[in-house]
Amino acid sequence: MLNLSNIMDTIQMIDKQHLDIRTITMGISLLDCVSEDPRRCCDKIYDKICRRAANLVRTGDNIASEFGIPIVNKRISVTPMALVAGSCDTKNYVPFAMAMDRAAKECGVNFIGGFSALVQKGFAKGDEYLIESIPEALAFTDVVCSSVNVGSTRAGINMDAVARMGQIIKKTAYLTRESDGLGCAKLVVFCNAVEDNPFMAGAFHGVGEADSVINVGVSGPGVVYHALQKCKGQPFDVVAETVKKTAFQITRMGQMVATEASRRLDTPFGIVDLSLAPTPAVGDSVARILEEMGLATCGTHGTTAALALLNDAVKKGGVMASGHVGGLSGAFIPVSEDEGMIAAALQGTLTIDKLEAMTCVCSVGLDMIAVPGDTTAETISAIIADEAAIGMVNSKTTAVRIIPVEGKQVGDMIEMGGLLGSAPVMPVHSESSAEFIARGGRIPAPLQSLKN
Amino acid sequence: MKAIVTVVGKDQVGIIAGVCNTLAAENINVLDISQTVMQGFFTMMMMVDLSQCQTPFDQLDAALKHFGESRGLSIRVQREDIFDAMHKI
Q1: What are the structural domains of chain B?
Q2: What is the maximal distance between C-alpha atoms in chain B?
Q3: Which residues pair with A118 in a beta bridge?
Q4: pLDDT tens per residue, range B48-77
């Protein structure tokens, strides 16, 4: 039997601690939209997305109303576009992004992911054309997100792709300079990308997935933060246990929403992604959780250990609460989207080097980091290479979402607006990595790839 | 379908009567009531049965909220499943 205090706990979490479902993401396969004629292909893409996701937003809103739990985002992910468009007789892939953009707007979702290429071992024809089209695709569309997988534990790192992505990020930042490089906020470079991630900007619908699928991303840094306030001064065993219990509750709610959405949309349930995804709102920060564990400022010594505990406990608590766990599952550390991270970066305690260390133990990587506009393409490539190496060796997903903001210097602030937040421009090392990046080729897969 | 109605606000005459009238007008049966005063606030939860209710969920929620606002109370209705999911294994 439910008691009053349980019920009021849940209501407090929603009202005061920012508990929400961060996203219901419908994955849609576009493999049956392949056509030689690019225009025909775009039409098929538009039609299929609109047909499958016609009721997604309304269903999400109805569930939110009936269960009294905010569902912040409704989104769509599609098959990596390089695979779909590869058969078309064109080198310009921007129209495919425009078709995605139109379809997403028609369905009323706020982002669509999958303008993507998987090039961890090499480029197919479609991959090269897609990557070349990324800067314009992101500049000419509003809600399309793009990702490129440049490495994996099995394949090693494609350093030609890493070098190319440094230039692509620079060009994207330039083309979207009017909005502080907003295009780069919609572009992720991955190592070990996952095929069922519901979170943007890195979501795409993998080729091993069903024709369409519902993936749900939960959130709740505020709830964890609040729970930890009750165990001040206690040993880490208590901290871990508290995080686990909270993660369990959050994930149960996510699982229930996922099951309900899957039933109403008559679409198979894929996974629940157990991520602690912060927002710029006060009280919804991952950095503040780490500080609650006893660190004066996020980024000081001890931060990596605190994050390791948090990331692990979130997974342990969540895994029993869901039928299928997937996606990125862990704690996100996007600088611009986290009020505590922004404060720590402004203060200078949180640096890119410390963030890199934190990515060894968190669920993704260097996320939403603004760097000076004069940062070279080679330096950005070298940052990507470092992250990809961490992912490759540790058999985990890592990513880089970095914004070299045209005309901005260290200490300036950039404004992305909404959930993307604002960020101080952070310093990078000025010493050159150009000769390193110019080598090209592939970094061989590590010994741990040989598991058979 | 079962739902939970929660009411939080300053204690005053006629809260339960008012909420029950609103529910009765929608043909909603009350299955259980539990109430207390928490940190100075009147706090009540009612388990209700919506199976005979013809009004769409969002309109029901709006009707309860409307009554709540006239009395300075926070009232919400949510399907029971969310609480079951979070508090029962």
Answers
A1: 2-86 (3.30.70.260)
A2: 38
A3: A149
A4: 999 999 999 989 999 999 999 999 999 999
Chain B positions in Cβ-Cβ contact with residue A11 (cut-off 8 Å): 6, 8, 76
Domain boundaries, given as residue ranges, for chain A: 25-191, 214-443
Residues of B with CB under 8 A from a CB of A: 4, 6, 8, 34-36, 38, 43, 45, 47, 57-58, 61, 76-88
**CATH topology (fold) of A25-191:** Anaerobic Ribonucleotide-triphosphate Reductase Large Chain (3.20.70)
* Alpha-carbon distance B85 to nearest alpha carbon in chain A (angstroms): 6
* Residue-level pLDDT at A1: 64
Find the distance separating the first CA and the last CA of chain B, reported in whole Å. 20
CA dist., res. A113 & res. A200, Å (int): 7
Q: Which residue has the tokens 């720590």?
A: A344
Q: Which residue of B has its CA nearest to A11?
A: B6
Beta strand pairing status for A71-78 and A21-28? Answer: parallel
The alpha-carbon gap from A379 to the nearest alpha carbon of chain B, in Å, equals: 46
Is A25-191's fold the same as A214-443's?
Answer: yes
pLDDT at B41: 87
**A214-443 classified as CATH 3.30.70.100:** no
